[in-house]
Amino acid sequence: QVQLVESGGGLVQPGGSLRLSCAASGRTFSSYAMGWFRQAPGKEREFVVVIRHTGGSTYYADSVKGRFTISRDNAKNTVYLQMNSLKPEDTAVYYCAASRGLYSDSNLRLYSNLRLYDYWGQGTQVTVSS
After folding, report:
1. Which of 130, 35, 33, 48 is nearest to 92 (CA)?
2. Cα 69 to chain center, whole Å?
3. 22 has which bridge partners?
4. Residue 82, SS3?
5. Could you read off the pLDDT of 71-117 as tens digits, one per residue?
6. Which residues fall within 8 angstroms of residue 10, CB to CB, at 6 or more apart?
7. Considering Cα of 18, then 47, then 61, then 112, what sign does the dihedral take?
């Protein structure tokens, strides 16, 4: 069992930055690929980014590529999402999730399927507005 707790959300102006954190319980954090998803009001939950178990490989949605950066610290059981150049369309509840799936670097896009994730956090609200 893994429990995930997100933090760091808030209100930010367009062009601003936020850093989200996701703290995981348990001693098997390094066994999971960690993803971030987001869900805007009235929309389906969508994939943002994933980082593999050891942190060596990442895969980003086109909408955030070049603006968001995911990282993880397995010693602290924490994954981070640095969000820069935020836009109003980034407004959503952001969720972190853990996946036991093992996919090669050439198939990282498979992690964009939310059904492959075993554990989810409760979400943190990010609002980008002037």
Report:
1. 48
2. 9
3. 6, 79
4. strand
5. 999 999 999 999 999 999 999 999 999 999 888 888 999 999 999 99
6. 18, 125, 126, 127
7. positive
